[in-house]
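Quarterly update from the structural biology core.
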Amino acid sequence: MELNGSEQRYEALLEELSREFPRFRLVRKPDSRTQRIIHYGLIGLTFGQMRDYLDNYHTTVGQTVYVTGDWANRDPDSRYITLRHERVHMRQFRRFTLLGMAVLYLLVPLPIGLAYFRARFEKEAYAESMRAACELHGRDHIEADRYRERILRQFCGPSYLWMWPFRGHLNRWYDSILAEIPT
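Predicted structure, tokenized:
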């Protein structure tokens, strides 16, 4: 079967990731006991507000990307954008080590409400998501209020435990990424 352009792009990225990260693998979150435990823990920590960890969020630990159960059925462009984001996290793990990332991402300075390093790491990864989305869908896509709101909500809402509550700062950051992306 011949692959279309979107599928070819996604497959090429998988090959790149395998070369850059020799132990790279995709694991379905529902198949991981640890990911299921995290899911239920997040439901408790957020008083029920974060219920879609298994179904709508992808998680990188080292060179392993834990993907949603419907990953294989997702649009190849969506998978491509997601893996561009997760590659940033894999590079962060390489730079800071598993222990370093765990401490910085989860605890510093606070695990909930003011998670500077989590926000810093996610801003780097979401900037890459924006670049990839712009490449595939055009600048209007990432300039749309709906797209901006979806990304900023990740920082201010329960999905990442309200990691960065400073909306003005996040809007300035978003605008700075827009300014860096060629028109």
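Residues 105-183 form one domain.
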